[in-house]
Amino acid sequence: DAGITQSPRHKVTETGTPVTLRCHQTENHRYMYWYRQDPGHGLRLIHYSYGVKDTDKGEVSDGYSVSRSKTEDFLLTLESATSSQTSVYFCASSGEGGNQPQHFGDGTRLSIL
Amino acid sequence: AQKVTQAQTEISVVEKEDVTLDCVYETRDTTYYLFWYKQPPSGELVFLIRRNSFDEQNEISGRYSWNFQKSTSSFNFTITASQVVDSAVYFCALSLEGETSGSRLTFGEGTQLTVNP
């Protein structure tokens, strides 16, 4: 399995504060992804990266930004957190091609009060 | 845009029953890939299987089997002789071939399977 670690695993914060979630992979995968999981919606793609400094928006990108300065690290930032961003966030990585299965981190449970 | 629908939100069965999880997808692309993932109560996502759009062979792996039918845009998952350890949320997902898109996934809403002893 791809070694993917997410930090922190749990976070509680207040509305309006900035939040950064970190994803680290050890498989040298080109592609990395951030998803959020909410009841009734499955997982939805927030942003993804196809290389260092190369990122693009997913389905639910409003209110989120990302950065990838190294192959192994992919950061997700909520500039000013809102209660609607309370969710479980998953990071994933994959190799080349649409047929490559994604390997997921264990998730970050984020609560915004 | 592509879409994946898992119409069964929750299924409850008794151990040793067979159960089928339905997945219907929509895409205009001719090359695509279908996946099933399992999310046990511990919360991690576990890859189960991948199917290419040009390969309609069904697959069996132990108690698990998958039925891919392009004619009905379906990729159904059957568990034979279910066990309590099969209790989980199961997700069906779709990815397309693209130059810089990798395998970014469109997920269905998931089916919560509960297997009772």
Pick out its properties.
heterodimer, A: 113 residues, mainly beta, 4-stranded antiparallel β-sheet, B: 117 residues, 6-stranded mixed β-sheet, 12 strands, 52% strand, globular
- Number of distinct beta strands of chain A: 11
Mean pLDDT of chain B: 93
Shape label of chain A: globular
Report on the biggest sheet of chain A.
Answer: 7 strands, mixed
Uncertain runs of chain B are none
Characterize the largest beta sheet of chain B: strand count, sense, and whether it forms a barrel.
Answer: 6 strands, mixed
**Quick one: which chains have the greatest interface?**
A-B, 31 and 29 residues
Helix count of chain B equals 0
General form of chain B: globular
Helix content of chain A: under 10%
- In angstroms, what is the radius of gyration of chain A? 13 Å
Strand content of chain B: over 45%
**SS content category of chain B:** mainly beta
Q: Termini separation of chain B (Å)?
A: 41 Å
Count of individual helical segments of chain A: 0
- Rounded to the nearest angstrom, the distance between the terminal CA atoms of chain A is 35 Å
